[in-house]
Write a structure and sequence with these properties.
Elements (H helix, E strand, L loop, with lengths): L13 E5 L3 H6 L9 E5 L4 E3 L4 E2 L7 E2 L2 E7 L15 E8 L2 E2 H10 L4 H5 L4 E3 L3 E2 L10 E6 L2 E7 L7 H9 L9 E3 L14 E6 L3 E8 L1
Parallel strand pairs: 1-13, 3-9, 4-15
Antiparallel strand pairs: 1-2, 5-8, 6-7, 6-13, 7-10, 11-12, 11-14, 14-15
Bound molecules: ligand LYAYVSCA and magnesium ion.
The site of magnesium ion has 7 residues, from strand 1.
Catalytic activity: a 3-acylpyruvate + H2O = a carboxylate + pyruvate + H(+); oxaloacetate = enol-oxaloacetate; oxaloacetate + H(+) = pyruvate + CO2; 3-fumarylpyruvate + H2O = fumarate + pyruvate + H(+)
InterPro entries: Fumarylacetoacetase-like_C, Fumarylacetoacetase_C_sf
Keywords: Metal-binding
Length: about 220
Amino acid sequence: MAKLAQFKDFGKKIVCVGRNYREHAAELGNPVPSKPILFLKPTTAYISEGQAIKIPKGCTDLNHEVELGVVIGSRATNVQESEAMKYVGGYALGLDMTARDWQAEAKKNGHPWSLAKGFDTSCPISAFIEKDKIPNPENVDIWLKVNGETRQSGNTKDMIFSVAHLISYISQFFTLEPGDLLLTGTPAGVSKLKSGDIIQAGLGDVVNVQFTVQS
Ligand SMILES: O=C(O)/C=C/C(=O)CC(=O)C(=O)O
Ligand SMILES: [Mg+2]
């Protein structure tokens, strides 16, 4: 395993998991998946604290999705689930910002979600979290507030597919590399944002972040 220090500048490809919490699948009227649903965001989607989330031009329904992010520590190709946690370099809190109106249109037409999920500023991210700060990623409180009001409050124990299963599954199809970010899906409570909203989000008492929404 490479040294952890190199992952403090994570920022490589972003692999996202959809519908990984039953209640979130239900709130959008979707069936519970029998295998992970995956999509990608470009690296240009990343922003860190101090940078604003920009509502993309023409989007009328920008939603927040708070998610546990897993930072990949070493190259993973076709790894067994029993070995998968060795490939975790650390963690981060991530927001999978979603243009829900564009996603709905794409779903209706059978088109990809790339614009709805991959626009600039669609991946606000916390600082890197050392692996030992989250000894059990399957039991972490995850929350998000908008203007001080709680909108999402969940726990990663409710994920349908575990971190180990996700790494193993994804690595059967494409290689995960050091610095890649895996966003593991959002719990229920996604909602519409407007310009000027202030988002606060956190993983238990390990990390919290704040981002402002701008038009
Ligand atoms: O299928 C939908 O309508 C929406 C799914 C998502 O946006 C999936 C996620 O990104 C998620 O569950 O975190
Ligand atoms: Mg998501």
